[in-house]
Ig-like domain-containing protein (Paludisphaera mucosa), 287 residues
Amino acid sequence: MDRRRFIPGPESMESRMMLSTAAAPAVATAAATTTTTVDANLPYTIQQKMTRIDRIPINMRALAPNRVLPQGMIDAIQQGMEETISSLKPASTDAIKGFNNVLRDVVSRPSLRASDAKALNNSLTQVLVSAGASTDAIDKITTNLEALATTVNTAQGLPVFLTTNDYALVLQMTLIVGQPMPAPTPPRISPSTGTQVDALHNIGKEGVAPMFTGTYQATAQMQILQDGSNEVLGEAQAGANGRYSITLNQPLGVGTYKLRIRAVDELGHVGNSSGVFILKVVPPQGQ
């Protein structure tokens, strides 16, 4: 028998893959490939992430379009996922491998046991704990996934496949929406306020507040900060085309400054910062 189940694709939840589970070593959830590198297909903004969370019941019905999904359980799972938005770090590789091993074991069984749901819950919990999810968020997700598996899925066809699909789907999407906004590319200094030496080195003028320009996700709030102290020296919002211009709050004295840039989402979650770029402020010519 060629047993198959749907699992999430590594990039877009709207584009799902069908992988054979007949050969256990070949099976792994797409969550295992999740990294801090954010593809263009992955969500940046809160609205994009909320849209993905809203699609959870649609994707849960991929195996059984008419399956029963109690609204209370789905709402609670989605609430738990919302609490993780932009706040997780990369999950432990060992924890993800542990989840995959449990998934392989459960999907090979002819029927779903209560202990299978418990094992899936425990392994999913370990992944989310390693990623820094709160106890409240984890409880909302796992309690309702287990209830869905043991009180709803068992009364429908293909309970094993429905349950393993639910766990793989919810875990992967939680890790995806939990990623902070990715690090921007270091900006360039505006020619009107300084000189761009190379991609990471800039020269500014004493007495002139430097302006930096670049591109990022449209409407994101961009912040330039001093490396080490994380003091925000200037910020501005990217336009609809993704372009931004940030003029520092005030001119800097003569010296060499190590700076970084980062994005902040609509709820104030701070994204990953860029690598260090250098601003060397020099006196005007002749002084």
Q: What stands out?
A: The longest helix spans residues 159-178. Residues 41 and 157 are 33 Å apart (CA to CA).
